[in-house]
Each structure stands twice: as structure tokens, then as C-alpha cells.
Amino acid sequence: TLIFMSEQQALLLEQQRIHQLRNYQASMEAAGLSVPFPGHRPLSRAQSSPASASSFPISVPAPDPPIKPRFTTGLVYDSLMQKHQCMCGNTNSHPEHAGRIQSIWSRLQETGLRAQCECIRGRKATLEELQTVHSEAHVLLYGTNPLRQKLDCKFTQINTMSCFGFSSGVRIVHSSSAARLAVGSVVELVFKVATEELKNGFAVVRPPGHHAEESTPMGFCYFNSVAIAAKLLQQRLNISKILIVDWDVHHGNGTQQAFYDDPNVLYVSIHRYDDGNFFPGSGAPDEVGSGPGVGFNVNVAFTGGLDPPMGDAEYLAAFRSVVMPIANEFAPDIVLVSCGFDAVEGHPPPLGGYTLSSKCFGYLTRQLMTLAGGRVVLALEGGHDLTAICDASEACVAALLGQELDPLPKAVLEQRPNPNAVHSLEKVLETHSEFILSDMTQMCTLRDPYFMALTT
């Protein structure tokens, strides 16, 4: 009996020693240090021993699971945001529906991209956080439970024009929780990237936010998630220079309003404008900021309708000749992207009408990653064709992870932007040449092969 007990104790001590060594080795490897695993005595015993496997089963510790790289791309998503729906109740045909984020999240899982990212937990934004951009009345009306039914009904009757949300007052069931969760999720992700806990990130959130103004909901938007995150970065982390790039096909009027006089936030929007005839009608190239913020509001306002529609060549030209030169001169500390995908082919004219490929957005993301030490956060805005937004999200997350992207066709890379796009870009360059660009605008224009081809 004494021999049997001593054998048991020896085996248990041996197992504990090996398990501790494995844990130590894993912790050292996670810190980037290579630690050799020392040799150890075999656990097996002679079959005649009372401690053999046949008479005394031994539970060998399972190997520790592989450790994800700690400094990687972050994702944030919460299924509670699916509860947000239009008061009309028609969830099948409504453009802004729960299937948008659900489909994107499923695609990221199916492709294995989600497993390569760090999934963080979102949260509801506080009422105080919402008031960094929005008025107290707006926050109370749209950020709390709809207990003021009479006020809500009155507001809806006055302001609601269309269940498409392209007006200022569409009330949505469960919107307060979903909208506050969208804001809080973006804020959480942005702060983890700003403090370098994560490398970069993508927020799969709804409802969108860039149309929401100080006291007015608009275009499916209730609270401006990206603008609130930028304000909180300024207040809590004292971030001095923030770049916001908005490539949703609609101009982000709410974001422009929030920072119109702020020289520490450079807002650059690429959108369909058509001389103010496309929703929301704002975003003219001569809207450049006010007071100390003059020159720090840049609207790449494409005009000319859909004859022909803008595509990859036009957006690549915009990045090459306007967005990246201005952004490089500004030298931001972090880049936030109002990441709408409604410029992708597949969106009918009322919702977009442009013909960008989904993979083009991966290349635009890759260019922005050259700024701010790679600290880039994308927050979903518009985009309603499920295939288009899933493909584009996949391309963007792959770019954030540093993966090789599907190449753009050579014909696209060599294609001249259409004359309407050239005219629009030249208008932007002319307008901003007297502000933050100085000689860079002229040099960029002259060196850009697209413009050289059109002027020779």
C-alpha cells in the first residue's frame, strides 16, 4: 500500500511540474521570448506497476490552445442592434434592416477573417457621451425609452416624410438601445486603437450615424457615432489631430457640422453631389470650414449625375490627387472612417447609382493605413445591397489584417477618370489650394498621370 501511494504521489507531482512548465513556456512565447521545453521523465510505467494505465488511468493535461496575436485587428458587433427597425414594420423591403450587419458578421465568420481578429464587447453610450455632439433635448428624445408618446407622435407627424428615413424624424421601435449601442461600440473600438491595445479595427454597427446633426435625426441616423468618438478622443485622450474620411456615397452633413470650425479635425468626404440635387444636398466643394477651421473641411463633391456613373478609376483618382496629399500634410494621429458601401455597384440610383467594385475599398483602406502609424478604425455607415456590403467588408478587413488583396484589373488602373470626375476634382483642388495645401496641390495635379493624360 505504501508503494502504491508513493507511485501515485510521484505521478501527480510529475504532471504538475510538466503543466507548470508548459504554462511558463506559453507565457514566455506570448511575450515574444523563445523558451526551450526541458526534457522530462516519461509518464508511462511498466505494465506490472500498480500505476500502469490499465489499473490507474492517468489524465494528461491537454495542450494549451494557440494564442492569438495580441496586437491585431479588432472587430465589434452585437446582435442587439438587429432589434432596430422602422415603425412601418416592413423589415423585408426596408433598406436599413437587421440583415445588413447580420450578413456581414456571418461573412467574416465564414471566410475565417473573424477568427483572425480580436472581437471586443460593445456597450451602450452614456447620455453624457451623446451630448458631446448632440443637444440635451435630442439625446433625451432619441436616447431614452419612448415614454413621451404624445411628444413622439407630434414630432413624427411634423417631420416624417418617408419611411426610407431620408427625412428628419422617422421613429423606430427599439431605436434608442440600438443607436446607443452602435455609438458605444464604435467608441470602445476607437479607444482601444488609439491607446494601441489594438492595431486597427472595423465596427459592424447599425443604425448609421453620419447624417445625424446636433438636434436632428436624418437619413436612418440618430446619433453620430464617428463624430462622438472623435470628440471623446479630444476630451479624454487629448488627441491633437484626427482625420475623418467619409466615403459613403451620401455626404456626412452631421459630421461636417460637428467639426466645421475645428482645425484639429480634418473632415474629408467623397460623395455624389450633383450640384446639390442628391441627398442630403450638402457637401459643396466651397464648404471649407469656418473661423479657425477654414480649410479643414474637404468635400470631394462629384457632379454630373450618372452619365457616366463614378467607379473605381474615379475614386482612385480622388485618393491620389486629393485625399492622400491633404491627409499626409495634415499628419493625423488617428484615422476614423465613416465606412458606407452604397457607392458599390448594385445600389439603385436613389440609394447610390455608382459602380465601384467591392475590392476597391480594400485598396482605399490600405492607403489610409499608411497614415497615423496604421491606427485606422472603420465604422459601418450606409450600404444596402447585401452582396455588395459583404464583399466590401471582407475586402476591408482583409486589408486591415495585412493580407494580400485580390488585384484590381489592369484596365481599371490604367483607365482615365471620366470628364465629370476630372472637373469635380479640379474644383476641389482649386478651392483648397489657398488653405492647407500650398504647393502640394499643384505638384500633385501635374504629376498625376490621369490629369497629365487629359491635358496633353
UniProtKB/TrEMBL annotation:
InterPro entries: HDACs (IPR000286), His_deacetylse_dom (IPR023801), His_deacetylse_dom_sf (IPR037138), Ureohydrolase_dom_sf (IPR023696)
GO terms (BP aspect): epigenetic regulation of gene expression
Enzyme class, broadest EC rank: hydrolase
Annotated region described as Disordered, given as residue ranges: 39-61
Biased composition (Low complexity): 44-59
Domain Histone deacetylase: 94-400
Pfam families: Hist_deacetyl
Protein family: Belongs to the histone deacetylase family. HD type 2 subfamily.
The protein, known as: histone deacetylase
Organism of derivation: Mastacembelus armatus
